[in-house]
Amino acid sequence: MQSTKSRRKVAPNTAPGTKTSATDNGSAESADKLDQLLLSSAICNNEDIGPFIRKAFTSGKPETLLHHLRHFARSKESEIEEVCKAHYQDFILAVDDLKSLLSDVDSLKSSLSTSNSKLQSVAGPLLDSLDSFLESRTVLQNVNLALGSISTCVRLIEICSRSNYHLSRNNFYMALKCLDSIETELLDKTPSSTLRRMLEKKIPEIRAHIERRVSKEFGDWLVEIRVVSRNLGQLAIGQASSARQREEDLRIKQRQAEEQSRLSLRDCVYALQDEDEDEDDQHDQHDAVGLSNGLGNDGHSGGFDLTPLYRAYHINQTLGLEDRFKQYYFENRKLQLTSDFQVSSMTPFLESHQTFFAQIAGFFIVEDRVLRTSGGLISKMEVENLWETAMSKMCGVLEDQFSRMQTANHLLLIKDYVSLLGVTLRRYGYPVDALLDVLSKHRDKYHELLLSDCRKQIAEALAADKFEQMLMKKEYEYSMNVLSFQLQTSDIAPAFPYVAPFSSTVPDCCRIVRSFVEDSVSFMSYGGQLDFYDMVKKYLDRLLGEALDEALLKLINTAVHGVSQAMQMAANMAVMERACDFFFRHAAQLSGIPLRMAERGRRQFPLSRARDAAEDMLSGLLKAKVDGFMTLIENVNWMADEPPQSGNEYVNEVMIYLETLVSTAQQILPAQVLKRVLQEVLSHISEKIVGALYGDSVKRFNVNAIIGIDVDVRLLESFADNQAPIFSDGDANQLKLALAESRQLINLLLSNHPDNYLNPVIRERSYNALDHRKVVTISEKLRDPSDRLFGTFGSRGAKQNPKKKSLDALIKRLRDVS
What we know:
Shape: rod-shaped
Largest sheet: 2 strands, antiparallel
Helix content: over 70%
Strand order of the largest sheet: 1-2
Number of strands: 4
Structural class: mainly alpha
Low-confidence stretches: 1-24, 262-281, 294-302, 787-799
Radius of gyration: 68 Å
Distance between the termini: 200 Å
């Protein structure tokens, strides 16, 4: 078979004569020819002739286009003929070849048909088996895929169910772990797009739900922890108060041991003390462990539960929100602390201060626990910053409230609670020196207020005094009014009813002073200062020396009008002297210093002015009373012919009064006070006797009158000697010395050698109480019996009396000295 030649594209030829005619016929024909050539070229090159058609119709000359097409067809017919003529022989040869192959093709066709029949008969079962195999394999693949999908879905459903179970049980951490497992392991393998879309939508919703639930629980905890903090603070401060009370009890036992050790009971007492100390130590340890674990004294939970906080922190860590939660927690706790600082102006601070400080104490106890156990939720520096803020605010509140307070007891109550707050928070490592500095700063103000209160109480107690001895019918009254202030003079209990030598003013004032000492020690103690006895003693001296002494002086000068009242006041002052000793011992014991150190620093009696005023008032009233009897001295016969045998009238009256006075006074006045008063009275009587002889009312007197005065003085001296059972012999002699001036004057006037007075040694030994001016005046009044009227007529020429001569020499010598 011969291959045919490839068909050639024949471009239309242009006759030479056309070009010539175009040149000749003008530009119109040339354009027509050009269009024809372009159309022929486009058809030959199988290009689109649409533009030519549109141009022909646009120009309105479709006939020209049709003419060109017909012309092109005619030109191609001749070309076709030429081609056919050129390939005619090849075509004939090809037909012959095809005819020769026809028989071969038929045989091949039959052979192929037979082979096809055999192939179809053999391959049919195989194709069926293949189709079954392919179908089974497809089914197997589908089943395996279905099993894998089902297994994945079953595991997914199980985890979802577990997550729902944990959510229903509020076990959010496990629920979040289930969600994380779904996201990381199963979500991409989930065959169901619907299930995958549902999970992609629900997982963020569940996380948001968990976050909301945890936030709500944390918010509820924040609300609850405020109440818990207040209760926890009150519990902690109460335990500090109990520990302080146990320390006070231990001090009391130690003081009792010191007293009993003097009775050789030291071993027994110390054994008991050690046992009590062990018990107290165990109690303190139990309290400390209980507080650190958020427990009360009974061992049960006191509501101090940080589980919601830890849970919220853990969940937020799991959610990847740890830093945000830390900031959220710190800001909320800071806001709570700021709100705790608010002091209500509607409620007195005295009523709200315990709640105020307990709330702050509980807050920082909780924060200490969170700091130690939360694993980084809050840092130590943040807690310190909160504490500095709280300390600054508390100091400001205390400064403001203390500046407004005008009652010492209110200030003491707040100070005690603040000191307990300091003890409580110091156990947790918080510095409290600034609080203690505020307390120390207001120490003087507190004592000024306390002194003011005591002044009012003392004034009220003294105003209620009836100047009557106190009657005690029961033993408890005696213990409360006498033994509690160590006013007893004997360890033997008296019989009841018992009449005390003092009035009700004494125990009332003692109670006021003792309360002052205890309040002062209470304020000074637990304030960071260990040795504060000197400060307590200073304020106690002010109370006794300024308030009580001045009040007693005012009472003595304004309210005492009779001897019985003055005597009662003098008795009261004697008892107050013993009470003052008790006050300083009591202050030393409460301050924790040995009594020997307190006694070593003892000063004089702080109520000495009131004591002296009371004794002076009593002495003055007694002197005034005695002056009434001493007016009877005017009835003395100064020129008596014979000396009186039993004393003059005035001295008898004075003796009766003095004996009555002593019998009454010795029941309430101490011996020393009575001695001093009697000394003043006897000295006054002596002065009155000398004054009568020295005064202008007595112009002259004789020896018989002096002998009568000597009898009077002897009666007074015997009265002094008779007081020896009440006083010691030395005190009785001191009473007699109160009569020294009158006695020495009488001895001088009755002496046979009065000029011995001029001898300095004798004068110092026997006449040291006499004033030489009085001696001169009185000696000049002494007349000898021979100096009576007309006595010189019978005695003229008689020898002068030596005593008279000596007396005249004495008078002359003393006048020369003067």
